[in-house]
Amino acid sequence: MQEEVENRTVNLAISxxxxxxxxxxxxxxxxxxxxxxxxxxxxxxxxxxxxxxxxLIGQNQGVSSIPIEKxxxxxxxxxxxxxxxxxxxTKDQNVIPPKYTVFFKAKDADALTSAFEEFTNRKLKAKExxxxxxxxxxxxxxxxxILPDKVRHKSQERDx
Length: 160
Description:
Blueprint: H1 2-44, H2 53-57, E1 64-68, H3 73-83, E2 86-92, E3 99-105, H4 109-128, H5 132-146, H6 154-159
Antiparallel strand pairs: 1-3, 2-3
Helix pairs in contact: 3-4
């Protein structure tokens, strides 16, 4: 009786070990299939958003370009991502200051026009806004005129 219980215990341990090993192998194989399918899907997809000029031209669609200032690059990138415009930015270092050119394309002409309308509207609004530094300097002068003894000057603080 004791020997039979020991045999069943050993048999159960071996069966459990085989089961867990098979489960691990099956899980690994499932992960590998999923990973290969994901990689295959990525390679078949066209890149979206910011990319190199080679990738942009390689998509066999018309590419347009415009020159742009460095200060406006982030604003353009935000708008381009919002409207799904594919673009590539190049820097011409032969000119001082460096000149940037944006190459772009979109599946819809409407998306492209609306993206550029929003971008130009943002630029125009930024030019119309008054400078915060100028307003701060005006307020400093106003306070200095009202309360001259309360205004500290850096040259006075350094002499102490």
